[in-house]
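Sequence only, no structure available. Ideas?
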Amino acid sequence: MLTVNQSNSFAQQNNAYAASLMRSTASSPSPHSVCKCGAMHPSESIDRTKPQAETKVELEDEIPNNKFGRLIEDLKKSLGPDKGLSSEDIDVEKIKEMMELYESDELEWGKYALNDPSRSYTRNGVIDLNGNANLLILVWNPTKSSAIHDHANAHCCMKILKGTLKESLYDFPEKVGNELVPKKETLLHCEDVGYISDDIGLHKISNPLDNEVSVSLHLYTPPYASLYGCSMYEAGNGKRHHVDMSKYYSYQGKLINPKDSSAC
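Reply:
I predicted one. Tokens follow.
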């Protein structure tokens, strides 16, 4: 069992090279710090034609030679080789089935699960799947949570790799001024797979464990949030704020944004 004092064990696995990467990152732009535009309620449209910046990926993504790597290969194949899928093109049930079939093994995914105990959670990029999806590993510190947020008109499939997470589901607020009250709360345990889209509503993810870090694998497809941002909502009054989600804490197991990575 992972204690609070051990809650950065994933980061400790990478500290030997992370420190040197922090120095090099400070002097060069991240290859995975991309643009942002507004993310809207499903009834509104997203302007996907005006990214604020465009940065080339300088390194080829590596796929591990293990069961986790085979999951990545299967997801790439399912999403196709050509960039440009829309939300309607995605076979969500097939994606969920692939994630359900993968049996979590920390020895396989642990290198990607960098953590910072001073944050609520970290967003660690694993791979870009043909420009049609982002695969991320999120590390959740004990008793911490995300904000209430949407998913920028995309699909999000989430598998619990370690620990337990609680999903609180909300309706989109009809107007600003009312407290957002969850309409459903679900505990997701290791190996469980959840799904959310803006057609379902907003949600908040939290780690209910007092002394253990929880870890989840997220597939966002299409990758609208990382390209255009998403929206978070204040719990007390439903006010919406745009959030830039383009900056990962790490990518492919390498720390790239230790100070200003994106979260909501």
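Residues 4-55+62-255 form a domain with the Jelly Rolls fold (CATH 2.60.120.10).
Hope that gets you unstuck.
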